[in-house]
Amino acid sequence: MLSNNTAISVENISKRYRIGYQEERHHTLVGSALKLAVQPLRNARNLRRLTKFASGEVESPDIVWALNDISFDVQRGEVIGIIGHNGAGKSTILKILSRITFPTNGRVVIKGRVGSLLEVGTGFHPELTGRENVYLNGTILGMSRTEVNRKFDEIVEFSGVAKFIDTPVKRYSSGMSVRLAFSVAAHLDPEILLVDEVLSVGDAGFQSKCIGKMQDVASQGRTVIFVSHVMQAIRNLCDRTIHIDQGRIVNDGPTQQVVRNYLTGDSENQLSERVWGDRNTQPGNSGFRLLGLRILDSDSNTAQAFRTSESIRIQIEFELDKLIHEIGVGYDLFFADGSMVYRSYHYDDIPERWPEIQLGYNRLECVIPAGMLNGGSYIVRLCVLQQDIKWILNSTPELSFDVEFDHSRSPFFFKLRRGVIAPVLEWKRSC
Amino acid sequence: MNSPTSEDKPFVTVIDASAKFGWWNYLQEVWFYRDLFYFLVWRDLKTRYAQSVLGIGWAIIQPLFSMLVFTVVFGNMARISSDGVPYAIFSFAALVPWTYFSGALTGAGGSLITARGIITKVYFPRIIVPLVAVTGKLWDFGVGLIVLFAMMVYFGFGVTPQMLLLPMVTILMILAASGIGMWVTALAIQYRDINYSLGFVIQLLMYASPVVYPTSMVPERFQFLYNLNPMTSVIESFRSILLSTNPIPWDGLAIGLFVSLLLSVSGAVYFIGMERKFADVV
Lengths: 431, 282
Description:
The complex is a heterodimer of chains A (431) and B (282).
Chain A (H helix, E strand, L loop, with lengths): L5 E13 L10 H21 L13 E13 L3 E5 L6 H8 L7 E7 L2 E4 L12 H11 L4 H15 L14 H13 L5 E5 L7 H16 L3 E5 L3 H7 L2 E6 L2 E7 H10 L8 E3 L12 E9 L8 E3 L4 E9 L6 E9 L4 E6 L14 E9 L7 E11 L3 E15 L27
Helix pairs in contact in A: 3-4, 3-5, 4-5
Chain B lengths: L11 E5 L6 H10 L1 H15 L8 H21 L9 H28 L1 H4 L8 H9 L1 H17 L11 H25 L2 H15 L15 H5 L2 H14 L6 H32 L1
Helix pairs in contact in B: 2-6, 3-4, 4-6, 4-7, 4-8, 4-9, 4-11, 6-8, 8-11, 8-12, 11-12
């Protein structure tokens, strides 16, 4: 039974999904024709199978357990962070708690009104005015009309778009509409707030405003569950953090400890971000100390899964206690099977174009351009050296990321082309 | 399963994978979300004809032009009987409810897929979505009805006491559209074929309803089968009530009501049964 102080009790929750089915390939005309003929039957079966599971169907190539026997309790007034890699099941937890999706097994008891912010501006319609969207979005988030009436002035004032409140939202800048949307969400006032990655939108100023608002909410004794990739935000907000990996809870405890284990943890070749906070354990020597290594997407979020049509940024953060003459900072890129793709250093171009390396704090970035890599898993290994003298870091530490091939628009450039890179090169007739 | 309780008690929500479905809770919840229903209908109306020159004019153009074409093709060329009234008003009296019915079904069929952005981010009883589509089309129906009344004045039809029955028939029409709408919506989210076929199925259904011809052209022995289509008695009643073409078809209305109720209840049951899975398959 729930104690009086428990706001959320999650008991043995599991969630099973069926992912897309495997296509069979036919190499003969007859085979293909036959396939075409029976395709409707096959489609019907597969579509049906999306929601039907044979009793006790647990293991199957196309079944994914997004959550596997998750249990935890949240006390009233607690602010909890949930962290984990992409696909670990973080968002699924929020979706179950906010009742968007239904668990396969298990039971959840929630005491109190729940507000879920899985996105800012759900249901915003570009043709409607700001005022109309406030009402629409407010009711979608679970407010009643009278509640929106009561808070309307506050919402508009907080958003800072009062002047344009009767203008259709399609004429707003994207920043304005995000501010208005966030303002509605910020006035939701539920007893339990579920937040997913909302902070990853907007500029730095907006993000800090969001964090401030969430701190307000937390300090008012409300219960908050917060899913994020931004460790800084988790550290600022949450007392307790749950680390989820492959649908299971691997760690649940005080935030500092859980985050540290997560960033430096044993699953080290599964990381898209590694940070060293303790001066004594920072990798390096000769005055070079590595602070952080990250793989970022174009929006500056650490990410592990990309498409080849996106660029990928390798970010290296380090401190120099003394200037190192002819230092070279770079990395090796390996394909998952161990073959090396390339090595790159910051001084590969003409000297005028080298990024400056200064005494003290430095942060360098290297962009892997879109349209080059093949689909697959890659490993980044850091290399730092003093030219012609010695290695400072040789192919360690490492991060990894996955890419899905999607940059060719040709009907014949298949996903599964061999090779570690898959550039689309120019072809022309030369006779 | 899920139970937001009344305002004075603290909210307790129980999500239990093995619990039985609670109808009473579900109904309470639909009631709790009534403001959302209101605003979604309102958004539908507000945005449907946004940035168009004719605006609400589009609501009457479709039935009006259909009427013109039908009058020329079926009235003047094929000389189909129109129960003794001018063919134009004969067909328009059918086109007003029919346009509502077909619009409601088309709207409902795509409604959950269009609302994907909302239903994957926020919870509310999903049955609101097709009902919003069915309700929103009532506005166009109202405009069509006004045009129909104007035509009745033009053709010299008077006010009769039977017109008091019109709201009842309208309710039957809404019931029929909601029932089929819920079925179509729930199926369409998993099987997109429904959306591809809906257009021509509705077109075929029009010929299985007395839109371009009078009910009297259907042989007596097929009348029962014919009346299983609830729109048959709806359309026939519109003509009887407004144009006094025939006596009000009470038998047909009884069959239509029964079929509509059956479709609505079974549609709601099927829809709500599927509801837990929507966010996973959409």
